[in-house]
Design goal:
single chain, about 200 residues, alpha+beta, Glutaredoxin, 8-stranded mixed beta sheet, two-stranded antiparallel sheet, 6 helices, about 30% helix
């Protein structure tokens, strides 16, 4: 059942494909910074077993009923991932108070070694608001399935780091993919507009 849903999500996913170069940077086949996604199945039907920064078992649907920004990262990343967190924070700062209040964020690690204590230190380092954000990790199999569903490309390097793309995906309150920005270097203004519409 999980594989059938994953196949449906991939089939109905985004307009355009995502590729990565040797540096792990993402490139979109479209020219727009925000890609609107065709209506498809809710990602909440997937059931990865995740553990958040507080050691709580959570599902992908932890923020069901809210617009959610979803992305993937790993805690020991020294460059792209901190920039990814900063990008989400800047996007939040651009929102009006009601939209920001409605928004939730879920960042899932590629690295199964990112245990709650590691994630908790990252929360403290970036002063993350855990009333609206969750940082989480899961098994290699669950993370692989989630990455495939989200269109995130990654591979582990011999030194333990990861080559990865960094799309930021907006889910509607029902968990269906709504729109996405393929790279942390892309403008997020259009994503903010879509968030405001979903939060109404």
């Amino acid at each position: 059942m999980r594989r059938a849903l994953l196949a449906a999500v991939l089939l109905l996913g985004c307009h355009g494909s995502v590729t990565t170069d040797d540096s792990g940077a993402a490139a979109s086949s479209t020219t727009s910074s925000v890609i609107d996604v065709e209506a498809g199945p809710s990602l909440y039907a997937l059931s990865p077993k995740l553990v958040d920064q507080d050691g709580h078992a959570i599902g992908l649907d932890v923020w069901h009923g809210h617009p959610v920004l979803v992305g993937m990262f790993y805690a020991s990343c020294a460059s792209a991932c901190p920039l990814f967190v900063s990008t989400v924070r800047r996007l939040e700062d651009s929102l009006d108070a009601p939209t920001r209040s409605a928004l939730r964020v879920l960042l899932v690690s590629f690295d199964p070694n990112d245990k709650p204590a590691v994630l908790s230190r990252l929360v403290a380092k970036h002063s993350i608001d855990t009333t609206r954000w969750r940082l989480a990790a899961g098994s290699e199999d669950d993370v692989r399935d989630l990455a495939a569903a989200l269109g995130v490309k990654y591979r582990r390097l011999p030194d333990g780091n990861y080559n990865h793309s960094s799309p930021l995906i907006l889910l509607g309150p029902d968990g269906a993919m709504h729109s996405r920005v393929e790279s942390i270097g892309d403008p997020t203004d259009g994503l903010a507009d879509r968030l405001r519409a979903l939060a109404r």
